[in-house]
C-alpha cells in the first residue's frame, strides 16, 4: 500500500492527504490551547467576515455572478476558510487515490495525472460543498445568527494567547448578542499598555483585521474619553467568558 501511495501517479494525492493531516492536527492543538487556527486565518483575511456570506438568492442588482455562485456553493464566508481548505485537500487526496486504485484494478495501470487530477478536483469540490454545508448547519449554525464584526465594538473580550501591546496583536475571544464565540485579533489603542492572557478588555475600534482595545473597566473607559458605544452593544465582562 505504501508503494502504491508513493508511486508518481499518486504523489500529488498523497501529499494533499499529508498536508491535510498536518493542518488538522494544528487546528486541534490550537483549539486545546484556547484559540483556533481557523479563526486566526479568517481574521487575517481582509473583508472575510462570517457575516458577509455569499447570498445565492439575490445580490445588489438582482443577479448572481458565476464567482459569487461558486463561492456561495462552497460556503466561503459561512465556514472558516481553513476548514474548507482541509475538506478540499481531503476530497482531492481521497478522490485521486481511489481513482488510481480503480484504474489499476480495472485496466491494469493508473491513469496519467492529466486524467486523474480533474477527477480528484471534482471530488474535492463536492466534498467541500457537502461536508461544509453539513458543518454549517449542524456545528457552526451561523446561517441564522451571522453578525457584522463591526457590531462587536463595545463588547468585552478575553485575551486567550500570550500578551499584546501596540504593534503586537494577539488572540482574544468575544461573545456576540447571539451567544456565539468569535476569535479576533486585538491590540491596545494606547501606547505603553500591555494586556496578558486572561485579562478582560473592551473592543473600541476595528481597524483592518484587528480590534483596538482598552482595559474593560469603568475607570479605563472614563479616562480614555468619550467612545461611541451604544447601550445595546455594551456588555459586561462575563460575556466574554465561555
Overview of this protein structure:
With 242 residues, the protein is α+β, with helices and mostly antiparallel strands. The protein is 43% helix and 15% strand. A 5-stranded mixed barrel has the order 1-3-4-7-6. A two-stranded antiparallel ribbon has the order 2-5. β6 and β7 (210-215) form a beta hairpin. The model is unreliable at 49-64, 142-146 and 226-242 (pLDDT under 50).
Please summarize what this structure is.
With 242 residues, this protein is an alpha+beta fold. The chain contains 7 helices and 7 strands; from the N terminus they run H-H-H-H-H-H-E-E-E-E-E-E-E-H.
Topology:
Elements: H1 2-6, H2 11-32, H3 37-43, H4 66-73, H5 81-107, H6 113-140, E1 156-159, E2 163-164, E3 170-175, E4 181-188, E5 195-196, E6 200-207, E7 210-215, H7 218-224
Parallel strand pairs: 4-7
Antiparallel strand pairs: 1-3, 1-6, 2-5, 3-4, 6-7
Amino acid at each position: 500500500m505504501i508503494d502504491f501511495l508513493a508511486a508518481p501517479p499518486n504523489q500529488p494525492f498523497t501529499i494533499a492527504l499529508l498536508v491535510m493531516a498536518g493542518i488538522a492536527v494544528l487546528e486541534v492543538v490550537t483549539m486545546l490551547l484556547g484559540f483556533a487556527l481557523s479563526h486566526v486565518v479568517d481574521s487575517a483575511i481582509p473583508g472575510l467576515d462570517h457575516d458577509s456570506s455569499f447570498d445565492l438568492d439575490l445580490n445588489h442588482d438582482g443577479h448572481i455572478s458565476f464567482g459569487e455562485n461558486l463561492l456561495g456553493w462552497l460556503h466561503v464566508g459561512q465556514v472558516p476558510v481553513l476548514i474548507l481548505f482541509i475538506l478540499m485537500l481531503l476530497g482531492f487526496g481521497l478522490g485521486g487515490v481511489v481513482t488510481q486504485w480503480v484504474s489499476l484494478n480495472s485496466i491494469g495501470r493508473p491513469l496519467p495525472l492529466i486524467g486523474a487530477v480533474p477527477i480528484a478536483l471534482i471530488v474535492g469540490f463536492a466534498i467541500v460543498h457537502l461536508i461544509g454545508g453539513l458543518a454549517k448547519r449542524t456545528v457552526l449554525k451561523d446561517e441564522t445568527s451571522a453578525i457584522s464584526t463591526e457590531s462587536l465594538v463595545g463588547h468585552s473580550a478575553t485575551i486567550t494567547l500570550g500578551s499584546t501591546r501596540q504593534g503586537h496583536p494577539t488572540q482574544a475571544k468575544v461573545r456576540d448578542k447571539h451567544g456565539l464565540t468569535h476569535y479576533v485579533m486585538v491590540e491596545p489603542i494606547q501606547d505603553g499598555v500591555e494586556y496578558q492572557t486572561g485579562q478582560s478588555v473592551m473592543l473600541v475600534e476595528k481597524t483592518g483585521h484587528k480590534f483596538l482595545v482598552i482595559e474593560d473597566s469603568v475607570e479605563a473607559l472614563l479616562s480614555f474619553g468619550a467612545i461611541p458605544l451604544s447601550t445595546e452593544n455594551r456588555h459586561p465582562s462575563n460575556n466574554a467568558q465561555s
